[in-house]
Please model this.
Amino acid sequence: DGGITQSPKYLFRKEGQNVTLSCEQNLNHDAMYWYRQDPGQGLRLIYYSQIVNDFQKGDIAEGYSVSREKKESFPLTVTSAQKNPTAFYLCASSIAGRSNYGYTFGSGTRLTVV
Amino acid sequence: AQSVAQPEDQVNVAEGNPLTVKCTYSVSGNPYLFWYVQYPNRGLQFLLKYITGDNLVKGSYGFEAEFNKSQTSFHLKKPSALVSDSALYFCAVPPKNTGFQKLVFGTGTRLLVSP
Model:
């Protein structure tokens, strides 16, 4: 079955440590996205990518970095510069240029600072 | 700018009663509108969408939504709520004229269905 896989499901980060969240899709989608969700909050866009080797900052990109070396993969690195990284992180994908299509979401990664 | 608003943080309903989760939009022209559902510790799942045509859209799990252009609303409805419908619901709209689909989400409404 086609879909998006996020791993790990739970991740713990120590102070000052970088961690990388994985997002892989086999839907042949061009566009991929990363969102952050805090308790009781909506979704905030971190980064998005329309095509391989290209990505743009979203609304809250500070303290995060991404890469898009393959169409299937869009990993998110939470750097030590992100002062409050504890949150639920969601990856999504869509067909680029098709605004009537909507998103497919992964099941999320819960990151906790310890 | 295109936007959606969900005026209620939480909706409480008894099992078996009808439910409505509200969404209003601010979009130029004819909008595309989406509803997603999120269960605890899970990603968002697509429920339904309005693209064009019939104003009453039917979706997954018995949900439907009515597009009302005069009231700029796209409320989510279900005739008889189930306890398992308890979740977080988001409406969303893609911005127009960007050449790229980047959904704008509402703040979410938590639905609690009591037994």
In short: The first strand of chain A starts at residue 4 and ends at 7. The mean pLDDT of chain A is 92.
